[in-house]
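Lab notebook: predicted structure, single chain.

Context: the supervisor wants predicted structures on file for every construct in the current expression panel, including those that have not yet been purified. This is the next one on the list. No modifications to the sequence; it matches the entry in the shared construct table.
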Amino acid sequence: MPELPEVETVRQGLAPAMEGAVITRAAVNRPDLRWPFPDRMAERLTGARVNALRRRSKYILADLDTGETLLVHLGMSGRMTVSGDPLGRFVHEHPQAQKHDHVVLDMDNGARITFNDPRRFGAMDLLETSTAEQHKLLSVLGPEPLGNDFHEDHLTAAFKGRNTPVKSALLDQGIIAGLGNIYVCETLFRAGISPKRKAGQIAAPRVAALVPIIRTVLKDAIRAGGSSLKDFRQANGELGYFQHAFDVYGREGEPCRREGCGGTIARITQSGRSSFYCGKCQR
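Prediction complete. Output recorded below exactly as produced.
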């Protein structure tokens, strides 16, 4: 499932084609994805101007001049692609409609935004912009790891007394919004912390040091265009490239890349998810 860098990469790709543009035609080609689409979704989107395109955790939020916000979650295989962008950043020809093109937005600048989702684990909803943060999906989220509300004091307090593995704590969306399995593995490697360590047993200075490491890992991934694992694509259809820089994720049995370590990357299962780490240099 796409994590924060993948979603942010898609948002950045969509923004030039959507922000400030009017949705001249919205086509909703099925009644639901993970859950039913909101009533009269196509009608409510048609004619609306996109004032801003932002991201909250793993959700893309399009604020409309109608006072509503379109919430988009990509799910496991969802893709939002742009064609016909007049800025010349994407392919000018609109492609032929595909079987799983569930929502299509034609913009007044000539761009077309297509949401394609073969597995239909994605989701869309329309919220009142003024109360969007109270939506059941958004109200439970912790601070954005790249925002000012995420800092050393917050993480230290969140870990204090916690008896769960640090891997599980970092995946808790109520502690940090948007982190997923891949980038938690990469973060813990850079920090030299084993994913099996109990969060509450890590010394405060080491917990505090996680904050800049998390930010660096995410920024590196965003600059590289996210990771192209399985179905992920950027808004222009291209693959991401950060997977070529993974230090541990997916590298079971390969040598550790930390200079002078000499260890081997191992894989264990924690809460049904694979954790990749070096047992020699991560303690």
